[in-house]
Structure prediction request, 678 residues.
Amino acid sequence: MEDREKLNRLRWRCTRRAMLEMDLLLGEFLETIYPTLDPAQANAFVALADREDLELWPLINGSQQCTDPIEAEVVALLRNVRVK
Amino acid sequence: MTTQTIPVRKFDAVIVGAGGSGLRAAIQLSEAGLKTAVLSKVFPTRSHTVAAQGGVSASLGNSEEDHWHWHMYDTVKGSDWLGDQDAIEYMCRMAPEVVVELEHFGMPFDRTDEGKIYQRPFGGHMSNFGEKPVRRACAAADRTGHAMLHALYQRNVRANTQFFVEWMALDLIRDQTGQVLGVIALEMETGDVVAFHAKATVFACGGAGRIFYSSTNAFINTGDGLGMAARAGIALEDMEFWQFHPTGVAGAGVLITEGVRGEGGILRNSTNERFMERYAPNAKDLASRDVVSRAMVTEINEGRGCGPNKDFVLLDITHLDPATIMKRLPGIREISIQFAGIDPIKAPIPVVPTCHYQMGGVPTNYKGQVVGDDHSPVPGFYAAGEVACASVHGANRLGTNSLLDLLVFGKSSGDTVIADIRAGKIGLQPLPDDFADRTLARLNRLDHQTGGSDVSETRLELQRTMQKHCGVFRFKDMLVEGVAKILDIEKAVAVTQIKDKSKVWNTARVEALELDNLIEVAKATMVSAEARKESRGAHVRDDAPDTPANPNGRDDVNWHKHTLWHRDGNRLSYKPVIMKPLSVETIALKTRSY
Prediction:
């Protein structure tokens, strides 16, 4: 799959989610922060985006902690997203 | 590609949408041995049903005495007497059965000490025909919708339902007699267009809350089922009725729960005035949702809104002790920081009334059959959930009845498909020679459009127009102007242009196709709302105020009827509300007050 196709698939999975909160957060992250990630962080984000909203939300709001250090870095970046 | 070269896949039934109603219908069909396809834009457990947290109602009577007839009364009253009483009786009678069934599918309901399903009170749930509150809502913590989807999905896996994930249905297939023969759909991963030829087509693809600028609905809710039905000549029912929540974060739409005002939050206008004291001197900021929403819109319309465009008001909790905010409202603080860029300990949160739920939809009966203007079924076509209008919610939905609607009518539509196939009423009729021509023309137009309009700009204009002209509080002149504006926007939608012409994972194309559906819903909503010259339930007009002759602005003499919007000619017709229940006495019209 080409890079454009992979990015579009990721865009769809970031912006067509169960909860509006996640559409907004992941969509904003994809446009603003994702292009600045290193490959390991980018992979961690793709894996996070594959998780369900009610698994992801507790990580973002801090009520649950990540076990993987790279995942924790990405979640910290997600937590700092400010939706415009 | 031409209609003759489109791949055709054959099924007994095709279901569009894999949220609660689609999954519930699929269980009936697959377990009956029917070859069933379920199409969804997303993986099933990512459907918007997840966002329903409150619970599902059923008169189980586990905590105190309850009866389906009391539930029925509450639902009729909630609907402001616009709900069809046969469908409401059916739903409320079926509720205990479908909830217990769901429990047997593995739904992890909260429990009482004796091990029964725990039930909690909820707004509008009363015993003995409106006498006092009753515990009727069954929940799985604050994850009821999520838990429900998982239970239903697992059951479908067991039943061998065939899922087509990340597929978008584009159009209905109908023959010359009007029978529905399936759908044409687009696979996003390949860009392939495929016909799903089926004996029965079930729409379970949710609402269209994204027609409004401020909406609590996830981006997925683009009214695809409504657009497809309208293009296929099916009228849309009662589309003027949308439920709004008073406090969504301005711009983002994310909900700020009523609990914030419960903890002492105050609504303020641009002069820093606590304006609710003027509108509801006793309840103030804790007045009912509709009263608070109307007051907010009045402040904005009279120029006392906040911000550069004066288009929101403020929800202030800065007077509360920061320790209280951190302890009682930590989630809200997080939401405010992320979605409004404001720490509510230091500054007030910008809020506006926000679209939450669609009461209208594709007209159905309580069996889940889609019906025409005269209540007669459209052969081969069924619908359930938010896309459908049974009509159980009428002019206003009672809390927790949305999840119940999914279960009851998901199941009943499945049962009716099975019965209709076994009785030989529907079968795999031949596809007409031109069955995909209009869909292919639409795709072809999009691929070759030059000098056209931008999809996201046009969508934004549509959403802002709906919010401004057809929001929670409606004004005659604004509605008239809104109809003209939305018809102008329709012209822009007809010439949308995309830069990316590729096939594989072309999300620009999919978004343009979603906009084709949003515009149909926007037209239906605006035109239906402009025409209905009364206030009823969630449709509240400034020129239809509360008077002794018409309490709450409701005009039963002229407007106790369902609206039907027809895409062809952008015209309206009306049909009577079904006042005769299945087995009990009619719940007679009376003024709705709480």
